[in-house]
Design goal:
The protein is of the alpha/beta class. The chain has a single domain, classed as Aldolase class I (TIM Barrel). It contains 8 helices and 8 strands. The longest helix is centred in the middle third of the chain and has 12 residues. It is globular and about 50 Å long. The two termini are about 30 Å apart.
């Protein structure tokens, strides 16, 4: 597993749990609004002087047994790491719960993780209505794989949420309703406000953001699609 960063404590990233965060390097998307370009782009990954050995993470976790509840694995895109199931097994052997953040493009890996009971929580991105616009995600995306991942998550029997970073230039109320139809009946849908301070594509750095009141309005219009609609 390629680990590019490690946050030793968070109260925000795993709902109702004290956790740490593993950031994996590499991603199969190139989302223009991504704020983690250094964990996505090969040319930036190649400049990293020091990656974190997994053994270092395990040693830390052993010292936090009884103090932390779980581990969040995000990226980049964690499911591109071929040894992800084995590394999660190592983490769970210490008694920690595991939350996975994923873009949903790799349903075969997601299915393997769920079948092995590796996961306790999944947060899956829903980036657009179908088909995903290349201007947003940077590559062509197989929407059937996204649909399969959505079904896997909804029928997993574990806690989960869908997450959408929304931009005024792309996510109208009509677009969001189309997105809602894709995940209709979900437990939770989190709407995340786009921040233009740091973006993979510099052009997106000058784009407008939704105001808090606008986010609240959008939430009020989307209640039919999930049991809980949350604004972040």
């Amino acid at each position: 597993m390629l680990i590019t960063a490690f946050d030793k404590f968070t109260t925000l990233d795993y709902p109702n749990h004290l956790a740490c965060i593993i950031f994996t390097g590499g991603c199969n998307l190139r989302c223009s609004y991504c704020h983690n370009a250094e964990m996505v782009l090969p040319k930036m990954l190649s400049k990293i002087d020091y990656t974190i050995p997994f053994e270092t993470v395990l040693n830390f976790l052993e010292s936090r047994i009884g103090m932390l509840d779980g581990v969040v694995i995000c990226g980049g895109e964690p499911t591109v790491q071929y040894d992800l199931p084995d590394r999660i097994d190592d983490i769970k052997a210490l008694g920690f719960k595991v939350k996975l953040d994923t873009n949903g493009t790799n349903p075969s890996m997601l299915a393997k993780l769920l079948e092995k009971n590796c996961l306790d929580y999944v947060a899956m991105d829903l980036k657009d209505s179908f088909p995903y616009r290349k201007q947003l995600v940077g590559v062509n995306v197989d929407q059937e794989k996204i649909k399969k991942s959505i079904d896997l998550v909804k029928n997993s029997g574990i806690d989960y949420e869908f997450r959408s970073t929304i931009l005024p230039a792309f996510h109208t109320l009509e677009t969001l309703k189309k997105m809602g139809e894709i995940i209709k009946g979900a437990k939770k849908w989190s709407l995340q406000r786009f921040r233009n301070k740091k973006t993979l594509d510099e052009i997106f750095g000058g784009m407008g953001e939704f105001k808090g009141s606008e986010m609240d309005f959008l939430r009020s219009q989307l209640g039919e699609y999930a049991e809980v609609i949350e604004v972040r």
